[in-house]
Design brief:
The protein is mainly β. The protein contains three helices and 21 strands.
């Protein structure tokens, strides 16, 4: 199209004003067509993966935040804060001394200071032999320089890993699915003791390793399949509720502790325990510590009038549209 425009200019008779006018009109028309074609290519909708840049510079000394404009998930119209990107596999992200071996320690901690108070983005990417999750950390809306204090919990035989960020009080991302590989999903939750935690749920057992990268501050967690069978079923997920304890098929005792996180309307979570005949043994509503800005943590300790041999535990809420139950239901048994 640009070559055709050049040929029109070459054929102009400099002595004929009419030809000049005709050339100007033709040129303007062709530029309009060209702009329309380019605009359609730049702004047309397409798959989420196609919009993600996986070649960003994630070197340790990079001054600008690699994913300053994170990519919104398809549900961004309903929940605009939900963002997720792709983690780079650039070797520079491993640091000069390499990333180190994978392990399965139930607890780890490191970091320094409390400057970083915002989770700017969560990025995920599958790589050869492992999957990577990157937490981009900020001071307000700007990237922080250093990774703040953090702790990590990865219970043995479980499929969850929890990164606690005590200095974080705001987040630009709340949750996301992590494709069809080892990792299933992540949730950003308001922690009961203050701060936030990021919980990553896997589909099977894993080993992990952690890297801290500065300027900008990034906390990197790599996951590799472990091969061993897990001791616990995964947390139950349904509606806007994730039930962490108890797990499906678990033996329960009196008192019964129920915990998890949710984004149910007005943070209300109704807990109901029925016996095998459907008789309600206990019903209680507990309020989570957030629901509007991100997932809120809830926990309740229930006194049971009797202990069923078998029963059903339901945690969730009633739909504001039609009154139907939205949440999780799991089988339990008397311990």
């Amino acid at each position: 199209m640009l070559r055709a425009y050049g040929r029109i200019l070459e054929n102009v008779d400099d002595d004929t004003g009419r030809d000049r006018s005709r050339v100007r009109r033709a040129g303007a028309l062709l530029l309009l067509v060209l702009a329309t074609a380019l605009g359609g290519g730049c702004f047309g909708t397409g798959p989420l993966e196609g919009a993600m840049d996986t070649s960003v510079d994630t070197s340790v000394n990079a001054r600008s935040r690699p994913e300053a404009a994170t990519v919104a998930t398809p549900a961004a119209e309903d929940r605009p804060e939900s963002t997720v990107g792709v983690a780079s596999s650039d070797v520079a992200e491993d640091g000069a001394g390499g990333a180190g071996p994978f392990g399965k320690e139930p607890r780890a901690e490191d970091g320094s200071g409390y400057e970083a108070d915002t989770l700017l983005a969560v990025r995920h990417g599958p790589h050869e032999g492992f999957e990577r999750v990157v937490l981009d950390l900020g001071a307000g809306e700007e990237p922080a320089e250093e990774v703040p204090r953090w702790t990590l919990d990865a219970p043995e035989g479980d499929v969850l890993l929890r990164v606690n960020l005590p200095s974080a009080n705001a987040t630009a991302v709340s949750d996301g699915g992590l494709r069809d590989g080892l990792l299933n999903s992540f949730h950003v939750v308001r922690a009961p003791e203050g701060g936030l935690f990021v919980e990553v749920l896997a589909r099977k057992g894993f080993r992990y390793r952690v890297l801290e990268l500065a300027e900008p501050a990034r906390l990197v967690v790599d996951f590799r399949p472990a091969g061993a069978r897990t001791k616990e079923p995964p947390p139950a997920e349904g509606g806007q509720t994730v039930l962490v304890e108890p797990r499906a098929g678990a033996g329960i005792s009196d008192p019964l502790t129920v915990s998890g996180y949710s984004r149910n309307f007005e943070a209300a979570n109704t807990i109901v325990l029925n016996d095998e005949r459907g008789k309600t043994l206990v019903r209680e509503t507990v309020i989570a510590n957030d629901w509007s800005s991100t997932w809120g943590y809830f926990e309740a300790t229930l006194d049971l009038p009797s202990l069923p041999e078998k029963g059903t535990l339901s945690v969730g809420t009633r739909s504001v549209r039609d009154g139907s139950f939205e949440g999780v239901e799991i089988p339990v048994r008397g311990g």
